[in-house]
Amino acid sequence: MRIKHKNKSIFLDRDGTLIKAIKKSKFKYRPPYNKKELKIFEDIKFLKLFSKKYFLIICTNQPDLKRGLQTKVFNNFINNQIKKKIPIKDIFSCECLKTEKNCNCYKPKTDMILKAKKKYKISLSESYVIGDSWRDISLGQKTGCKTILVERDQNKVIMKKKIFKPDFIIKNFRNLKKIIK
Predict the structure, then answer these.
(1) Mean pLDDT along residues 68-93
(2) Which CATH superfamily is domain 9-178 in?
(3) 89 to 71, 79, 107, 124: CA distances (angstroms)
(4) CA 147, CA 130: separation in Å to the nearest integer?
(5) In terms of Cα–Cα distance, which of 143, 11, 20, 147 is closest to 88?
């Protein structure tokens, strides 16, 4: 018997999408490591408009936890600060390094979304992935979700290269009203 998936989700990247990422080099960004560096984008409050029809679920790569560059306590602090602003249903986090051979969760690998699909009976074809990088867009494409790239300062260089083709590009979360009904 086939399971009917009727719930819908907006899968959200965290660093660079919901919070400001910190520049390491021309193409590399990292999460904040302390409260002084943490800046939550104000426009995330517009995601509340969709929380009655869509589960808001964060899918995030956090290899700096394994590297010891960020603490679990501070990582949880960031997540809790976001939860104070928008109703997050769940957070799926990959702490693997992208070079780990047995990892199935480091974006754009699909494990985080597939686990959420199973746990919450989510219809991926009616769901969205929103992020600021090619990894997020590729993840959405691999799982059959619609993809939305949010243009933040840190992805301007990537955008110029046109490496990937999201379904939609927005300047900020206010623009979602034109896309998600």
Answers:
(1) 97
(2) HAD superfamily/HAD-like (3.40.50.1000)
(3) 23, 12, 20, 16
(4) 6
(5) 11
Structure-token pair, residue 144: 């059959």
d(CA 93, CA 111): 10
The 10s digit of each residue's pLDDT in 119-166 is 999 999 999 999 998 899 999 999 999 999 998 866 555 555 556 789
Q: What is the pTM of this model?
A: 0.93
Task: Tell me the CB-side half-sphere exposure of residue 67, using CA atoms within 13 A.
Answer: 14
83-93 confidence digits (pLDDT tens): 999 999 999 99
Q: State both tokens at 15.
A: 């660093």
Per-residue tokens: 87: 């109703």
Token couple for 7 = 């719930």
